[in-house]
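User: Design a sequence. Structure:
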């Protein structure tokens, strides 16, 4: 443990400017969320101690910047939501969106429900379930995920949540192109098409976010 464990990182400089642009008048709520991550999120093992100093740069801003990928008033399912990354970030940045946080582990579900209640987020529903079991119980326009699994394994558990029409917007790293190549068969099997790799936030973030978009139906 270090002296900074449990202390939210200071938001300043370029990160503050980016956060102001992304969250607008809801920046205060985003700061409360980061406080939850740095305290109870750390205590309950949702994030590691080494992640606390970079909660804004590596996690919250990295996730929230993809808000530009979703149409207005859409329903977004976040698979394997964990600590609410990216689901809660999107709910904070885009109050017009409806977020369904799908998470199978009870301790994470309890934490998510506590944070949603404390922040007063009426556009978020937490669903304790595996993604496969949520099919038919969630009517999503988009599905998203971060750090869940490789795309070849992610496609089979996410595309069915779209009910035949919509888009997967998955946050990925430098291996995005390789993952798309390895997932070609799975994408075709689950009726996905037009996989696209996009880099988002180049004008805002020191390390922009890479996403893979896969359409289903006419989306």
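Assistant: Done.
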């Amino acid at each position: 443990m270090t002296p900074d464990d449990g202390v939210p990182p200071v938001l300043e400089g370029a990160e503050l400017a980016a956060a102001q642009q992304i969250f607008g008048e809801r920046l205060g709520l985003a700061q409360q969320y980061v406080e939850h991550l740095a305290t109870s999120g750390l205590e309950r093992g949702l994030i590691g101690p080494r992640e606390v100093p970079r909660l804004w740069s590596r996690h919250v801003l990295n996730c929230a910047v993809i808000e530009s990928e979703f149409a207005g008033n859409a329903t977004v399912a976040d698979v394997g939501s964990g600590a609410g990354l990216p689901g809660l970030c999107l709910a904070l940045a885009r109050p017009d969106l409806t977020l369904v946080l799908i998470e199978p582990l009870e301790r994470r579900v309890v934490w998510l429900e506590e944070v949603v209640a404390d922040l007063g987020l009426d556009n978020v529903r937490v669903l304790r379930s595996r993604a496969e079991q949520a099919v038919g119980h969630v009517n999503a326009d988009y599905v998203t995920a971060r750090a869940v699994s490789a795309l070849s394994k992610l496609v089979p558990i996410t595309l069915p949540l779209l009910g035949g029409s919509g888009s997967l917007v998955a946050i990925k790293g430098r291996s995005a192109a390789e993952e798309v190549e390895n997932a070609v068969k799975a994408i075709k099997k689950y009726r996905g098409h037009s996989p696209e790799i996009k880099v988002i936030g180049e004008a805002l973030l020191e390390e922009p976010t890479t996403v893979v978009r896969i359409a289903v139906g006419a989306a």
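Residues 91 and 112 are 13 Å apart (CA to CA). The chain has a mean pLDDT of 95.
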